[in-house]
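I'll show one example:
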Amino acid sequence: MILKKLIYILPLFISFGILSQQDFNNFKTLNSVGKIPADFSSLTYKKIAEDLKTNKGNLSKAQEKVFLQGIHYGIDDLLHSGMVVYGDEISLYIKSIADRLLENKNDLKSHLRFYTLKSNESNAFSTDQGIVFVTTGLISQLTNEAQLAFVLAHEISHYTEKHVVESFEYRTKNKRDLSIRGLSVYSKEKEFEADRLGLKIYNEAGYSKEELLPSFDVLMYSYLPFDEVEFPKTYFTDNHIFKKGTTFN
């Protein structure tokens, strides 16, 4: 019960400490840089029409249309939300890691784009269109490049194996959430497959095997924003906030 309360309170405690060290006169948020990618500027209905020319596995024509309409409108809503940035330092760094992972896979590399999603959530997910989103929350949890490389290799494997399409088929039959986030929730079998294939990509790129287990630890416990430490209630309140004559216990 104490830990549950701390989950809601301690992020404020930590943020106050961080904010006290920030120079807000010169603070700049993460912004997009450079030429606007076609993902952001192309019209949604044109993307759908173009994608309808390709085969989507076992989907019928009617299912393909529903799938593509839902996923493209969902992607564009996210891209135009103001939370996704491109050409920034983080996105360029992520792309440089992907370039290393796909050094000998130029055709695959040409189909992938990497953007940063400004969110406290620790997450990364790929779409059937070759877009990989990585949140700033996940970046903040990782401790080195190798861990990020494995996450990217895992998401690239979801893309190559068309797991989003398979997720759509299953969720349609079982009337589950068909949003972008919903379609990125896979079965254990698909996650294991992405781990196995991602590991192959990771090893071929020369990253350290010793960083694999810490990578899984980060992903498993990333929902915890802090260590379980004693919370000093006096940090938030003392006698100065009460009217004169009121005692503080």
Notes: Confidence is low (pLDDT under 50) at residues 1-20. Residues 55-224 form one domain. The beta strands are 84-85, 113-117, 124-126, 131-135.
